[in-house]
Amino acid sequence: MNIFVACELGSSEKIIIQNNLKKHNLYFSNQVFNKIADNNFLRCEIVFGNIPPNWLVQSSKLKWIQLESTGFGEYSKLRKNFLKKDVIITNLKSFSASQAAQTALAGLLSFYRGTDFFALLKKEKKWVGDPIRNKLEILNNKKVLFFGKGSINKEVSKYLKPFDCKCSFIDSHSTKEYILNKLRLAEIIICALPGTKRTKMLFNKKMLDTFPKHSILVNVGRGDLIDENHLIEKLKNKTLRGAVLDVTSEEPLQKNSKLWNCPNLILTQHTGGGYTNEIIDKVYFFLDNFKRYSKNTSLLNLINPSKGY
């Protein structure tokens, strides 16, 4: 089989793939993604990694794409192409759940225990200490509202158990009345939703204005879920306690983005899924799925193009 490796790999990761797929033709991307598809890509039936969406419509041989990400958003406009050509697409759903959950937890603890503030004081060589002690909070018994019942939110809820947090979940079946009632009581709102037409700008001005003044918003889902301009306004006016954003509508952020200078905001720059062995583990996930593909058995993490997740 002809396999196109689109993701950027180091020499050790390439050796792992080559040793495991000796009987197949491997084509490694030069990481230059022009509008016209790479000739090597066009001869392949399998792709490992994220390729430009416009390449997909140029291929007549493609049968399966193993994304190196969880998100499917950039390919959402090509759903009909996937369905028409019977292209199988799989992602890394659940792969980053633990890491993203720990990023969410770290952000929350940073606000409640003041570590982000203390980091600034260190830079300014200011010792404040005692006056801050009685302003610090604890995570215990907080009311947490999760948007989405996926692997990330489930993992976060596990981490919150020792803190005796009161967790509630919002899903596609939740009524507006239920959502609003839960929001008014929430102290922490955690979002890990996929990017779809239904979720785009879900947290608009009206929704954000429902958040309690003392609440913290955490987004480890998609960057287009939030009205960032209104979020910035609320954080500046202190009508929202804080926000932890692992994802933003624009990535990377431009230097003139208002988010850089926004108070009470932690930006983790879409690193929520990252860890030391991330790339190697992605390679092994692909190889495991490749074995399934070769045996014509069900693949892990199949995406439904119609739903977008």
From TrEMBL:
Residues 106-272 form the D-isomer specific 2-hydroxyacid dehydrogenase NAD-binding domain. Keywords: NAD, Oxidoreductase. InterPro entries: D-isomer_DH_NAD-bd, NAD(P)-bd_dom_sf. Pfam families: 2-Hacid_dh_C (PF02826). One of its GO terms (molecular function) is NAD binding. This is D-isomer specific 2-hydroxyacid dehydrogenase NAD-binding domain-containing protein. It comes from marine metagenome. The lineage of its organism: unclassified sequences, metagenomes, ecological metagenomes.
